[in-house]
Amino acid sequence: MSALRVRPAGGALRGECRVPGDKSIGHRALLLGALADGATLVRGFPGGADVRATLGAIRTLGARAAWSGDEVRIDGAGLALGAAGPVTIDCANSGTTMRLGAGLAAGHAGEVTLDGDASLRRRPMERIAAPLRAMGARVETSDGRPPLRVVGGRLHAVEWTLPVASAQVKSAVLLAGLRAEGVTRVREPLRSRDHTERMLVHMGVRLETHPDGLALAGGQRLRGAEIPLPGDPSSAAFLVVAALLVPGSVLAVRDVGLNPTRTGALAILCRMGAAITVENRREEAGEPRGDLVVRGGALSATTIGADEVPAAIDELPILAVAAAFAAGETRISGAAELRVKESDRLAALEQLRGLGVPLETSPDGLVVAGRGDRVLASGRVATHGDHRIAMAFAVAALRAPGGIVLDDPTCVEVSFPGFFDRLAALGAAVEPA
């Protein structure tokens, strides 16, 4: 796909839609299914490039996996999972595939190299390498970055305190801990997303939970299970904000994950005055879910501190866009992690200035001067190959009468295949630039 122009079509966004299955849960379902005894059926598989990378990873490590439509059936290899000889896993642009895959690879006496594209090769990996080395694996990086070379084997349990909250590091340690001798303990300074823990319990693993972390005894066997994926709340957030920004909009997003470690963005938006209600709450496979109903309306500025960042880290770019149209000054701090995502997301958001939004960034956050009646200038933005930056500016374009051109919309396929089609179906104008 060449460059795209997104602009308002002159009316409210109305209707209902679904978003792809939760990417975070999808990664974990594949990895734990590969390590389980028996068959695991993943329903609602999103099919984006990131989860396809994890699907390739488990096949490389020796699990059989068949993908048809939105379902993946995995015939797990149990705790013996691992390739016979040295192998290389192409993680593409997926940091989750690389970090969690390293934890999985560490438990097998073989050599695994995990590599990725140019963007992934810039991302820090010592935070994964350090605990795995402490458990007895040999892990080599390239000056702290990919590629990772993991030589696993007989692991021993570790007590590991995360310097910063990270579900990926926590999950990698737990995956390695399943094949380690002893009880592995992980402590984190702030609560991070807990999909791995919920899924481990769903598949028969016993976990001890404590106020500051959890403990897992090695050697436990996982049972294959059916895992229906709820809609990805991070993907839903972009459509939610789109509806909030266009007066008169009424949008229902069906079957969205409502895990409390993932709903930080919804809580922040509601604090800003967003009209969001939840209907049809329920739980499947340990994960809460429901329907979001959103009505367009005025927003007010807020302050987002470090304690809220872990539960809203992936949604901070779209929250910054919402802040541009909220009355008052919004401050975000404690978000240095945005500097080392698929792009430097704080730097990428500085492009809002060129569209008429007063904004200042700092090493760990930004300050946005919002206005409820703001109308953006037209312009062209660089997505930097980052799916969340591309979607954030596509939503911002709904308040730019002349439209905003995205230089590389294809990166959205990483997490939200069909995003622009959904946006157009709801009432936006999307056309080649």
Quickly name the level 1 CATH class of the largest domain.
Alpha Beta
Tell me, rounded to a whole number, the average pLDDT: 96
Kindly give the count of domains: 2
Give the N-terminus to C-terminus distance in angstroms: 10 Å
Number of strands: 27
Task: Describe the protein in words.
With 433 residues, this protein is an alpha/beta fold. It folds into two domains: 4-21 and 230-432, Alpha-beta prism (UDP-n-acetylglucosamine1-carboxyvinyl-transferase, Chain); 23-228, Enolpyruvate transferase domain (UDP-n-acetylglucosamine1-carboxyvinyl-transferase, Chain). The protein contains twelve helices and 27 strands. It has helices at 23-35, 49-60, 95-105, 126-134, 167-177, 195-202, 233-245, 264-271, 316-324, 345-349, 387-396, 419-426, and strands at residues 4-8, 14-18, 39-43, 64-68, 71-75, 87-90, 111-115, 138-142, 145-151, 155-156, 159-161, 180-181, 183-187, 207-210, 213-217, 226-228, 250-257, 275-284, 287-295, 299-300, 303-304, 326-332, 359-362, 365-370, 379-381, 404-406, 428-432. The strands form seven sheets. Strands 20, 21, 22, 23 and 24 form a five-stranded mixed β-sheet that branches. Helix 1 packs parallel to helix 2 and helix 7 (233-245) runs parallel beside helix 11.
Present the secondary structure layout:
Elements: E1 4-8, E2 14-18, H1 23-35, E3 39-43, H2 49-60, E4 64-68, E5 71-75, E6 87-90, H3 95-105, E7 111-115, H4 126-134, E8 138-142, E9 145-151, E10 155-156, E11 159-161, H5 167-177, E12 180-181, E13 183-187, H6 195-202, E14 207-210, E15 213-217, E16 226-228, H7 233-245, E17 250-257, H8 264-271, E18 275-284, E19 287-295, E20 299-300, E21 303-304, H9 316-324, E22 326-332, H10 345-349, E23 359-362, E24 365-370, E25 379-381, H11 387-396, E26 404-406, H12 419-426, E27 428-432
Parallel strand pairs: 2-17, 3-16, 6-7, 10-12, 11-13, 20-22, 21-22, 25-26
Antiparallel strand pairs: 1-26, 1-27, 3-5, 4-5, 7-9, 8-9, 13-15, 14-15, 17-19, 18-19, 22-24, 23-24
Helix pairs in contact: 1-2, 1-3, 1-6, 2-3, 3-5, 4-5, 7-9, 7-11, 9-11
